[in-house]
């Protein structure tokens, strides 16, 4: 089981209490870099060399790595200095001022190095107990530089030993012995804390020094082997927050690690397009525009001359239904009776009439004349839907009267929100087909340009020239459109706001106020997700010039992998979530994850297989059970089955199964291993 940050701090406190002398490794322990790999800093140095026109060296990173290798090969000492590395670099390249480049490297080290909050707490605790404190580093950087860095980051009282200065390393044990002898330390009273298993743990233990292996954050987070420079910075920022913070819940971590990059990439793309086109206004439409709006406002303090932004209430129900007055009657009837059976949505006559705003008590006899029993009747076939269309067609003037009143209220709200202050307007939303965009254009008569996370290949033809999509535009690239639309509700989920959907606008003595749908279960988790996203965003802003142009693939990659992988811990959390998928005040809720017992799955295989295909997280399934459950359904094994059940009981839930058809066989195969 993974140790929590809080528990690890307590472990460190207990170890410190039991020892007289405390020492810490420096890099990846007391100090962290905001890049995934240390050599990523050399890419940044390369950029700075080019920007400052220090010289002509296109392959600085490769040359710098080669210079370090050469210095180590030619040195008789256990470690080398930065000066020795740059001496070798001066041989490899004559086209730059070596001293200036060296200063740029040190500057970059300062810029991207932060204190580790976990080790900082351990250090402060040891200091409060009056323990002698040492920092020990196998490093080529000058001692004076590391000493200054530690002090500037809050480590104020210590003695520092650096391998390149004393010509001894931790890995050989020589540096530990040197420090012990010089300071007359008792090894059995000494605790060393560091991330390198060989040099910080094994080498210390072999000398009789107590050691705590503080696993590197990259190792804990299971990072990939390589990233683009921009995403290396973003990923390191995420990891350094999540792996060192004490009070983050699952959803805040989800916001930081998994989806913050999606919102960051989209909002920066939006800003680039807005600036390029010289726009003077920006309207973020609820609810999907909420988070981009928050991030935009954060960036407004960093980027100059951005147009003023407003967050206005919008929904397909409140905008599309009044726009029915501009539609052909058949198209209007299609919209009024629309629902989404592919996502498991069910709809009743009551919901259809309530959504329109018709007084049901007036139409009971009409209902019966079309063959329906009550307003609770559910539409279960295309034939029933056609009957409802005919019924609404028979009272269409009354429908128009209701929607005409709504149209007037909506136009008042748009005027109140500032839409009519501009000749042409710009809207931001999650996207897909552009129905709200079209409604605003049709109702106001203004030119509308839409900036969306994605627009499909079925965008309304009359607005297709006025939409731009970030992840995909007008369905291209098709592969990315397919990936997103396969799990469209998972993307709408991360663009949600901590308030219900708009279902009505009310005219209160000239002031138009919004009425919201009763809260979905997902909204209870959104505050934590948003908190995490904003926390990550603020850290990205600190490195804005480096991460503003991160690619779409990088920004979407973690969330795409999250959805496809279906990790057990994630499925377990998402099983609590439900949401509605219909237009307006739809009461029917759909789950993100199906969560069933082993027995239930065995008895209802076919039904469950159909259900999981309609989940808002498509094909997300968790099957759980115990050894007793397996015995009850008559499964027998040739080995002592109960002796093998400890793992199963401990886990409680097997895992999400990507292909539900194989779920039962997977369980048996897993248990037989």
TrEMBL record:
Signal peptide, first to last residue: none
Gene3D superfamilies recorded: 1.10.150.400, HAD superfamily/HAD-like (3.40.50.1000)
InterPro entries recorded: HAD-like_sf, HAD_sf
Domain of life: Bacteria
Protein name: Haloacid dehalogenase
Organism field: Paenibacillus vini
């Amino acid at each position: 089981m993974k140790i929590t940050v809080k528990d690890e701090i307590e472990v460190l406190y207990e170890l410190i209490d039991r020892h007289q002398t405390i020492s810490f490794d420096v890099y990846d322990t007391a100090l962290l870099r905001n890049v995934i790999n240390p050599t990523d800093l050399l890419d940044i140095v390369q950029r700075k060399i080019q920007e400052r026109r220090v010289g002509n060296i296109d392959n600085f990173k490769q040359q710098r790595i080669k210079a370090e290798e050469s210095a180590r090969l030619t040195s008789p000492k256990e470690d080398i200095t930065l000066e020795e590395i740059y001496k070798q670099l001066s041989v490899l390249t004559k086209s730059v001022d070596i001293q200036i480049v060296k200063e740029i490297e040190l500057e970059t080290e300062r810029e991207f190095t932060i204190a580790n909050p976990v080790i900082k707490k351990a250090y402060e605790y040891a200091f409060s107990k009056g323990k002698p404190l040492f920092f020990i580093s196998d490093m080529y950087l000058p001692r004076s530089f590391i000493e200054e860095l530690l002090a500037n980051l809050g480590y104020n009282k210590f003695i520092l030993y650096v391998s390149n200065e004393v010509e001894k390393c931790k890995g050989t044990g020589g540096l530990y012995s040197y420090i012990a002898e010089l300071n007359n330390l008792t090894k059995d009273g000494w605790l060393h804390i560091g991330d390198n298993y060989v040099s910080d743990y094994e080498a210390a233990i072999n000398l009789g020094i107590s050691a705590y292996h503080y696993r590197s954050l990259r190792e804990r987070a299971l990072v990939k082997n390589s990233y683009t420079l921009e995403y290396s910075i973003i990923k390191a920022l995420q990891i350094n927050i999540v792996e060192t913070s004490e009070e983050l819940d699952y959803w805040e971590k989800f916001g930081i690690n998994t989806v913050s990059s999606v919102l960051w990439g989209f909002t920066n793309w939006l800003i680039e397009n807005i600036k390029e086109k010289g726009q003077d206004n920006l309207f973020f439409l609820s609810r999907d525009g909420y988070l981009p709006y928050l991030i935009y406002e954060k960036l407004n303090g960093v980027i100059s001359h951005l147009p003023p932004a407003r967050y206005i209430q919008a929904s397909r129900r409140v905008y599309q239904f009044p726009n029915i007055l501009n539609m052909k009657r058949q198209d209007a009837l299609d919209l009024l009776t629309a629902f989404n059976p592919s996502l498991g949505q069910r709809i009743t006559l009551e919901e259809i009439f309530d959504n329109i705003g018709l007084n049901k008590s007036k139409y009971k006899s009409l209902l019966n004349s079309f063959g329906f029993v009550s307003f609770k009747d559910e539409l279960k076939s295309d034939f029933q839907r056609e009957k409802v269309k005919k019924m609404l067609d028979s009272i269409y003037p009354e429908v128009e009267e209701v929607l005409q009143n709504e149209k007037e209220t909506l136009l008042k709200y748009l005027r109140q929100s500032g839409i009519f202050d501009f000749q042409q307007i710009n809207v931001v939303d999650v996207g897909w087909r552009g129905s709200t965009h079209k409604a605003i254009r049709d109702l106001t008569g203004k030119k509308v340009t839409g900036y969306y996370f994605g627009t499909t290949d079925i965008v309304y033809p009359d607005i297709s020239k006025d939409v731009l999509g970030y992840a995909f535009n007008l369905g291209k690239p098709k592969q990315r459109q397919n990936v997103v639309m396969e799990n469209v509700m998972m993307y709408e989920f991360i663009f949600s706001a901590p308030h219900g959907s708009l279902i009505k606008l009310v005219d209160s003595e000239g002031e138009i106020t919004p009425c919201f749908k009763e809260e979905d279960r997902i909204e209870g988790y959104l505050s934590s997700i948003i908190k995490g996203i904003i926390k990550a965003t603020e850290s990205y802003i600190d490195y804005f010039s480096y991460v503003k142009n991160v690619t779409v693939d990088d920004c979407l990659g973690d969330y795409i992998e999250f959805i496809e992988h279906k990790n057990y811990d994630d499925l377990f959390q998402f099983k609590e979530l439900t949401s509605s998928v219909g237009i307006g005040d739809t009461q029917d809720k759909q789950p993100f994850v199906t969560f069933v017992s082993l027995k239930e799955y065995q008895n209802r295989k076919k039904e469950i297989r159909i259900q999981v295909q309609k989940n808002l997280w498509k094909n997300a399934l968790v099957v759980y059970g115990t050894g007793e459950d397996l015995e009850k359904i008559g499964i027998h094994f040739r080995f002592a089955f109960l002796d093998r059940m400890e793992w199963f009981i401990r886990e409680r839930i097997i895992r999400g199964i990507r292909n539900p058809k194989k779920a039962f066989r997977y369980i048996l195969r897993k248990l037989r291993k």
